[in-house]
Write a structure and sequence with these properties.
The chain has helices at residues 56-59, 78-86, 98-103, 135-143, 154-169; strands at 74-77, 114-117, 127-130, 132-133, 147-150. It is α/β, with parallel strands linked by helices. The strands form 2 sheets. Strands 1-2-4 form a 3-stranded parallel sheet. Strands 3-5 form a two-stranded parallel ribbon.
Length: 170
Amino acid sequence: MKLNTISDKNGARHARKRVGRGIGSGTGKTSGRGVKGQKARSGVSLLAFEGGQMPLYRRLPHRGFINIFRANYAELGLARLQKAIDDGRIDAAQPITEQGLADAGVIRRVLDGVRLLGKEGLKAAITIEVSGASRGAVAAVEAAGGAITVRKPARAVESTAAADSESQAD
């Protein structure tokens, strides 16, 4: 193979549509825009225009609120945690941390913390430290003979530390 013989596969690149190049091209004269009118001209935006009538997106009420500062937790079910213990990816005798879960491939990434969910599916007695847990998950871990520590997520700790430093500066 030589560099001068390298080329794209057939159909990988499409030829540019050459408009306004004569009647024989099929896209000559009006360039495929029809005849006259607003849409035949440049600078047209008719996406939500309804002929002067109030557009639908303005007639309907907009409800709700999206909190952009909301903590985004990686969710972990008890059954998935038990499967990881059974597969030998996690040692139940050692304390389990959020970073340890990510390193073992049980969760994809820690995000703002890990939230433990579920009511059943855990058989092993474990010691785990997470950012959040449902009541059912806490009860299930304790029923299996383990211990759970629910700590503040890293983001909340940072904001509290920043607030403390500002109050001390005053």
